[in-house]
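Below is a complete specimen:
___
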Amino acid sequence: MTDRSPRPAGVRIAGTGMCVPPKVLTNFDLEKMVDTNDDWIAQRTGIRQRRIVTEGKTTLDLAQGAAEQALTNAGITPSDLDLLIVATITPEMCCPATACRVVDRLGAIPCGAMDLSMACTGYVGALNIAANFIANGNMKTVCVIGAETLSRITNWKDRGTCILFGDGAGAAILTASDDPEQGCLHQTLYSDGSKWGELYCPRAEADIPQQGAAFLGQYSTLVMNGREIYKFAVTRLQRCIKDSMKACNLTVDDVKVVIPHQSNARILESARDKLGFGEHKLYINIDRYGNTSAASVGICLHELTEAGKLEKGDHVIFVGLGGGLTWGSSVWKL
């Protein structure tokens, strides 16, 4: 890796990858664990199954697997990486960053490394950060990873949350492009910390909010006010997409696909219909993976890329919404 003098550049997504555990947990499996059923889950969330790590497998393993596939697909060697970002709320530990350990496993030392904690908005935030580093000429090649093992922080006795979450990782390699028109055209990141208590993961009694989602007695697991999070996601998703299109002077016909965080199929379908997108223009795969938080957008991007549904010059809108509360967007010309 060599020093590079800053100079403006275009940005391209050179390769993608994903890694999900082989273990499938279906709605029928959950029927045996909590008071729920397949029809109830599918009708309210669109989820049919999710992937769950087995004993001994961690966020690090999934992040590494997704990164390795992305590197291979991009034709990039680990030594070419200038920076690696892991978006996650389920890191290996508080220190060191999971990203540092991914760099070590890939053999990419002394590549820069950092974790990003933005919950379900994490992958979009990481894309924006990576694009800026490359576009301003300070870096040439960045690996973006969204990786989660949410099963580690799921209360499997809470039927309101355990039906939602799954494990997985998605990755992309971003590189400088000779085409200055290629890359991120517009980006946003927002937060509203006053509503943090609607979705949180408390470690001790002091972490329990006075207002918000009711604590169910199990520390270090996710607690969520489903009704409030649903309302937040419905309004913010549609607004993010509309504002992004307006900022870039894009019409529905101009957009190849919207790649949103996979929170709830009903939310996604409502946004798709109200904004006038056809079924193929707003990607949904939550039925197969559940809500994988920071990993979901990266997994969607990889599936679309592998299926040959994205081409150079396409306009793509990435949208994330999650705990914090956080939300953001990233508009790209591929």
Summary: The longest strand covers residues 167-177. The chain is about 30% helix and 25% strand. Residues 11 and 183 are 4 Å apart (CA to CA). The chain has two domains: 10-180, 184-333.
